Amino acid sequence: xxGLQEFVLPATPAKILKNILCIAKRLxxxxxxxxxxxxxxxxxxxxxxxxxxxxxxxxxxxxxTEICRAFRSVPVGMTGIVAIAGCLLMPAMLAQPTPAGFVxxxxxxxxxxxxxxxxxxxxxxxxxxxxxxxxxxxxxxxxFPSVAAGAVITLVFAWAxxxxxxxxxxxxxxxxxxxxxSARPYLPRTLGWVALFYGAAxxxxxxxxxxxxxxxxxxxxxxxGSGQLLTSLVFYWNLERGNxx
Length: 245
Prior knowledge:
single chain, 245 residues, 2 domains, 77% helix
């Protein structure tokens, strides 16, 4: 057991696994020797605890390098299609949209999109092992503050600042950008470019706010639809392409 404190976190998964095996081997040897020696129980507990702490630290290091594979290209792409179809259908459903009608329409589409992705993620979560479940919860936890902030901003604008509702699409794009950047450590790194796209689009929409809600609707559908289709492509290219066929 001596020297376990000298282990340094490795840089590659192969070295990490080698380190874990070394620690496990020393624990087995230590346990075997325990029955033949008269070491103090306190020393035994300290050495074992130190080894367990090092294994936990290695697990945390591994978690930072893992990619969450619970999000799939098809459900994400469907959210983009829903957004594009929604912006095209809105003029027929709301000929003269009011601020409350505009917000209600897009909130309904947002709930539908969350449901589409949640079905896939829930199925992946139920079929995953413990480590993968922790990773899925971590990604959702990273993205949740942005979702909560978006819900609060939407509620405030719809309730107390209806004259400024046309600013919401730009704010929504910025919120999505922040959410993607927050979850990016556990998702394909290429998503950083999609997050930049959302951020740039949101900034432009805030600088050049649409004159009316119909224009805001078209911008919303075009930006969010293309952004989700790009996200779908990223997931397919980085996580699913090699598994086809």
